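Design a sequence for this backbone.
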């Protein structure tokens, strides 16, 4: 069972409900493995791992990181070519005007580094974070660049970025106000497939949940694809079913139903005579 975090497993206030935690514990007791698959870097997932008592492997950074929670160790990690990313930003700025930028620094202790103008009051959701001048964004190795624009919608900005993206890079719309430049060659499906190979699972064994276009590869890879009611139309179009919204504990509602369908009812037969 694979779940995205923001907009999927997490409620809008970034909590996991008691009902969801109860269903996840019941699934674990039956031998079902829960794999978190998120765009957040591993360093930004600690509060979820702690809330769930999460163990084992997680896919982070849009698939660029496979993280061993128990050992606090990155099994895989892909950095972004900073020079190539700066070139895309320069071309895009000439086309659409001023961009507001942030980056995620590389490694196990990666953090969001935000330039002036990027913040819209949501920077604490990107924790850990720090504010630097624009030139300070490129001083350390990075895993991704986040783009925002004052006038363009997320989809307009993503389309422009894609048109100006060079080899070795890709563009992803990962959430409201989050358009990302990432290294090419991986996505949530590739990261999840690596974890499933370790677990001995095939796509037909997997139920996957998501809400945004960056979840499309994962849902297309999984045997059963579930989009959230609050999800993007592009994701709902590839889903096998639609769950209630994240604020209505949609992941838990679907898993609770699947659990009841999979497990036999307790026997009511008693011995007599």
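Sequence:
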């Amino acid at each position: 069972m694979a779940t995205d975090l923001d907009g999927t497993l997490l409620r809008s206030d970034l909590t996991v409900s008691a009902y969801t935690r109860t269903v996840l514990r019941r699934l674990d007791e039956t031998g079902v493995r829960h794999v978190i698959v998120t765009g957040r870097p591993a360093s930004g997932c600690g509060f979820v791992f702690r809330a769930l008592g999460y163990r084992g492997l997680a896919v982070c950074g849009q698939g660029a990181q496979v993280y061993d929670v128990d050992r606090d160790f990155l099994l895989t990690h892909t950095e972004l070519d900073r020079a190539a990313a700066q070139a895309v930003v320069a071309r895009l700025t000439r086309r659409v005007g001023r961009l507001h930028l942030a980056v995620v620094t590389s490694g196990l202790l990666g953090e969001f580094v935000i330039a002036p103008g990027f913040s819209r009051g949501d920077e604490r959701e990107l924790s850990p974070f720090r504010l630097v001048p624009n030139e300070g964004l490129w001083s350390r190795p990075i895993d991704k660049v986040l783009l925002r624009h004052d006038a363009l919608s997320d989809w307009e900005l993503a389309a422009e970025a894609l048109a100006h993206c060079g080899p070795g890079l890709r563009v992803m719309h990962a959430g409201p106000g989050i358009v990302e430049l990432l290294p090419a060659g991986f996505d949530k499906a590739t990261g999840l497939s690596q974890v499933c190979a370790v677990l001995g699972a095939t796509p037909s064994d997997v139920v996957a949940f998501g809400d945004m276009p960056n979840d499309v590869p994962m849902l297309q890879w999984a045997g059963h694809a579930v989009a959230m009611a609050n999800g993007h139309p592009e994701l709902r179009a590839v889903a096998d079913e639609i769950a209630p919204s994240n604020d209505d504990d949609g992941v838990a509602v679907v898993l609770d139903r699947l659990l009841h369908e999979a497990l036999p009812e307790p026997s009511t037969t008693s011995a007599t005579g």
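The first helix runs from residue 5 to 9.
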